[in-house]
Amino acid sequence: MTRYDLIEPPARRPRLAFWTPALAQHMLSAAETVLATTATLRSRLIDRDAAGEAGGNEPIDQPAPRRADRVARAAALGLTATGVTLGGLAVLSWPATPPDPAPVLADTTDARAPAAQGAPIAATAATPEAPAAQTEPEARAPRDRERFSARDLLTAGVPQAAAAVAPATAMPYTDRHHIFGPGDTLMEALVETGADDRSAYAAVTALSDVVDMRRIRPGQRLDARYAETSSGLSLAEVVLRRGPQQQARAQRGQDGFQAALETLPSTHVLHYASGEIDRSLYLAAESAGLPAKVFMELVRLYSFEVDFQRDVRAGDRFEVLFERDVVETDASVVDGPIVYANLVLSGVSHAIYRFERDGEPARYFSPDGRSLRKSLMKTPVDGARLTSSFGPRHHPVLGYKRAHQGVDFGAPTGTPIYAAGDGVIERANRYGSYGNYVRIRHNGSYKTAYAHMSRFARGLHAGKRVTQGEVIGYVGATGRVTGPHLHYEVIRDGKRVNPMTLDLPAGQVLEGRVLAAFQAQRDRIGADATALANARKAAAQVASAAP
Predict the structure, then answer these.
(1) For residues 492 and 200, what is the distance between their CA atoms, to the nearest angstrom?
(2) Mind listing the pLDDT tens digit for each residue in 42-55?
(3) Which residues contact 507 (CB under 8 A, 6 or more apart)?
(4) Structural domains in the chain, sorted by start
(5) Helix count (H) and strand count (E) of the chain?
(6) Which keywords does UniProt give here (predicted)?
(7) What is the reported pTM?
(8) What is the largest CA-CA distance in the chain?
(9) Does 525 score more than 70 pLDDT?
(10) Residue 40: in which H helix or E strand, if any?
(11) Does 392 or 359 have the greater pLDDT score?
């Protein structure tokens, strides 16, 4: 807080009285001038009259001395009037005593620029400079203290230049925050932090131009800043976090609140994780610090060629290199895509590299430039477990043995289901015991089907074109089922086949200059992964050697 001290004005100096020694001196000089001039004039008149008589001139009606006395008296009267006038002008032109300077609030913190700090400060100047010459209207202005203006409070009795550099003060603030819960609105959150209804409404109105209020979710953070004023706290700024790297800010100005979106600065890094599988790949990845989001992407990428129920065993290893952005404001992290991954299953390496060309989406390739994508995915759902294989089985609902013409993946309700390949939706509706059902035609030979969905993806309908990996629905328990799962079928030339044993055609194979560009990028990624792996090993050795 800035401290203020009251500086008393200097002692009042008496105003000029009507009769002062200086004025008496002026009047005495004027009188002496009048007397001397009168005597000189009288003497000249007498001499003139005498000269006239001696030269034979006609006599004057009155005696010379008497006539000279009358003329002298007239001259004295005129000169006396002139002296009085000069004395009055002397009184009016005499410098007036400056008015009493009003008390000044002095900021004890000198916030001036270094160049101005050598000059006297208006609030603390002890000896004022000589006042500037005033015009007649200014000299006759009222000097009553109650009639001083705000300008007089800052500049009375002190140099104008000094008043111009009075130090500025910083307004103190109080910061408060709110974490949104289920059903919370922005208006309610602001009022809860202490905002009045009018200010809260103005801030919400401004933010609604850049934020969809319907998309505020539980867990989002709201920061409110209040200015401390003499009348209490006043809402000055509102910051609503919209995502890991973006926020909306509304600030109060002269025209009310103005809102804008801001991108938070972050640092881009590569993060490395590795581990050995014991009981499951998921537990091993969690133990190695692999984020859940990155793990789900890893499973999806390998779902083209790896059966996670049968191919993964204890003792297998994995390593993952992925991008990460560290937000500078709060050190939060935003995990990005996988750059490199390698699953070593039964001693066989399955490495993949991310390759991005200008104007094309990023894709993943094996070390020799073969696309990881097949024509169809084997596992079109994240994190699922195989609960029922293809072939004859004892039906869990009907109670008798019958052919199971697909595979079942158990997963929680609401888990996303992906299109196994590029194609066109043939049907997306309720379909008997299949419940909510989707069928996709990929080409003249292959179709895939997905059953028991809880709901379809928004905008999904027959005739819509989809791409491989696009969400088409969500795991559910509609139709004839005992629990939530995905029933997945692959239909080849009108006949249902086992998706897990199907030999699917390979995807794109890089050649020529494109292959050379991929290989150069592959080598750079490999060097980064090796360097981070070695650094981790060295850190682990140092930690184990420490007492």
Answers:
(1) 61
(2) 666 556 655 555 45
(3) 370, 371, 372, 373, 374, 375
(4) 4-10+98-163 (no CATH), 21-93 (no CATH), 173-263 (3.10.450.350), 283-374+506-547 (3.10.450.350), 385-497 (2.70.70.10)
(5) 10, 24
(6) Hydrolase, Metal-binding, Metalloprotease, Protease, Zinc
(7) 0.52
(8) 176
(9) yes
(10) helix 21-54
(11) 359
